[in-house]
Amino acid sequence: MSAGPAAAFFFVFAFLPTILFGSLTPFLFPGALAGLLVWGCWYWELASAAPLGAKRRERRLLQWAPAASLVLSTIVVIARGEIFLPSVGLAKHLMMWFFWVTSMTLAIPYFGLIARDDVAERDNKAAALAIAGAIVAFAFCSALAGHRALVAGLEREAIWGASGAFGLLLIVWYVVETKTHLSETITIERDASAGWRLAGVLLAAALLLGPGADALVVRDWWIGAIEISGVVLLAVAAVAVERIVQPLRSFRQPVGIGLAFAYVLFAGLVAYVGG
Q1: Which of 122, 166, 189, 270 could be a cystine partner for 230, CB 3.0 to 4.6 Å?
Q2: Are 260 and 199 within 8 A, CB to CB?
Q3: Where are the domains of the chain?
Q4: SS3 of the chain
Q5: Residues whose CB is less than 8 angstroms from the CB of residue 228 and which lie 6 or more positions away in sequence, other chains included
Q6: What angle do CA 107, 57, 205 make, to 5 degrees?
């Protein structure tokens, strides 16, 4: 079973119409059906591709990552009080999570990481960390985007804000990947530290891009400029750090965890300054 046909179905019947019309509701059924096909292929490939005797630890990380991202996104939504807004509710946010995280899983292979090959077949811990981190990052981006627009009752702007945040996060990933070739360090060298670093960069960028794109669609230019500028600085710093860290061969994993924490801390400080 291949994810290709399911991905095409999802893109044509859910992704494009939702972006063009700025509403999730008319495309709930085809989007849900296509998303279920994508996730069915995801779990089928993780379960069926593993050779006999292979460890299950890394596969379990990917199997539980979507559920964990959903729980964390729900906590964010409840903490911000959005479920009490008229015509919003938790169900619409669950739709947003389902839509964007499903879209992200289709994009992962284009960044050199394949769940089936790298995790299920090769039992690569670094790849499992990176992919799981990407899932959580895009889920956070979805949960944080659209808050200001939803408060103002602007559903279309909320969708476009989330779309912009999603696209910008993909661009950040693309820039970091093309300048550092982190995927090769993760898949070929099986460097768990690189998996932590990539997860940290994506999560930090998501913490800034969600509110940043949201501020821009409601014309809060100052906050949007601060958040987006923080993402630019984060990407530049990540590329510079990789040029220094990748040649190292000792104490890689502790360094990776520390750098991932530093990226997220930087994003938190920028978000605090931006208000």
Answers
A1: 270
A2: yes
A3: 56-274
A4: CCHHHHHHHHHHHHHHHHHHHCCCHHHHHHHHHHHHHHHHHHHHHHHHCCCCCCCCHHHHHHHHHHHHHHHHHHHHHHHCCHHHCCCCHHHHHHHHHHHHHHHHHHHHHHHCCCHHHHHHHCCCHHHHHHHHHHHHHHHHHHHHCCHHHHHCCCHHHHHHHHHHHHHHHHHHHHHHHHHHCHHHHHHCCCCHHHHHHHHHHHHHHHHHHHHHHHHHHCCCHHHHHHHHHHHHHHHHHHHHHHHHHCCCCCCHHHHHHHHHHHHHHHHHHHHHHHC
A5: 168, 208, 209, 212, 216
A6: 40
What b-and-e string marks burial along 207-244, b requiring 16 or more CB atoms within 10 Å of the CB?
A: bbbbbbbbbbbbebeebbebbbebbeebbebbbebbee
Query: What is the rounded distance in angstroms from the CA atom of residue 242 to the CA atom of residue 189?
Result: 15
Report which secondary-structure segment, H or E, holds 104. Answer: helix 89-107
Task: Return per-residue pLDDT of the chain as tens, 275 residues.
Answer: 444 454 555 555 455 555 555 555 555 566 566 667 777 777 777 777 655 455 566 778 888 888 888 888 878 877 776 555 554 555 666 666 777 777 777 788 889 998 888 887 888 889 999 999 999 998 888 888 877 777 666 667 777 777 788 889 999 999 999 999 999 999 998 889 999 999 999 999 999 998 888 888 888 888 889 999 999 999 999 999 998 888 876 556 788 899 999 999 999 999 888 76
